[in-house]
Amino acid sequence: MLVKYDYKTYQFDESMRGYELLKKLGLNPEEHLIIVDGELYTEDRVIRKDKEVLIVKVTSSG
What we know:
This protein is mainly beta. It is built from one helix and seven strands; from the N terminus they run E-E-E-H-E-E-E-E. The strands form two sheets. Strands 2-1-7-4-5 form a five-stranded mixed β-sheet, with no helix packed on it. InterPro entries: Beta-grasp_dom_sf, Mopterin_synth/thiamin_S_b, SAMP2. This is Thiamine biosynthesis protein ThiS.
């Protein structure tokens, strides 16, 4: 899978769940969204290795 996050690109040759991907990248699941081919994925969904993934950091202000 091709993963884009913070102006960097990562390549993984295996399918995995969203939380596994975030863990491999050292990212907090509560602070990031997983978008696969334009669709928002929950962290428990399996992302197939042939997909393109965008990780987006969630920001809040208050």
